Amino acid sequence: MKALINIALVAIVAVVIFVIARSTLEIQDRPQVNNCVGECYTAYLAENGTIVEQARAALEAASAASPADLGKALFVTCAACHGAGGEGSIGPQLNARDAAFVTDALSTYKSNVARGPQSAMMFAVAAALSDADIANLAAFVESL
Ligand code: HEC
Per residue in 50-101, pLDDT tens? Predict the structure, then answer.
């Protein structure tokens, strides 16, 4: 009788282990919706390159951009008041100005020194600009 119970116990344990092992395998077989592995990752690499390659490409693009290109990207924040082409609206027309004029005006606003009756509108804008930003914006405005 004892031997029979032992055999039954061993059989039950074996079945439990088999079921657990099977379910673990099934989990690994499921499509992994949140993970891009295997073919998905190969396709991603072919399309985008590795993360390091992406970072290097972004750096190269940034260092290859001319000051005017960089200024153009910044000018998006100016366009609301000065017009997309610098033709002027709330703020004065800029597209006839050269780089020296723009650099001087922005530096003056950055020091919170008034140049005209509405300079307060430019104080906050200029405060956020670095010297490099000002040089890039000046190059872009001159190109307009
Ligand atoms: C909220 C509206 C506004 C935004 C945004 C703005 N400006 Fe101005 N800007 C003005 C106004 C108004 C003046 C005239 C200020 C004065 O009376 O001194 C001005 C003046 C200037 C001047 C001097 C023009 C002149 O003829 O004396 C320059 C240069 C200039 N802005 C560049 C920029 C650049 C570059 C940006 C974006 C980084 C920018 N502005 C964003 C409203 C704006």
Answer: 888 888 888 887 778 899 999 999 999 999 999 999 999 999 999 999 999 9
Ligand 1 centroid – CA 119 distance (Å): 8
79 lines ligand 1 (CB under 6 A): no
Same domain, 46 and 69: no
Q: How many domains does the chain have?
A: 3
Give 46-113 as a DSSP string: HHH--HHHHHHHHHHHHHHS-HHHHHHHHHHHHHHHH-TTS--SSSPP-TT--HHHHHHHHHHHHTT-
If you take atom 25 of ligand 1, which residue's CA is the nearest one? Answer: 92
pTM over 0.70: no
Domain that holds residue 12: 1-30
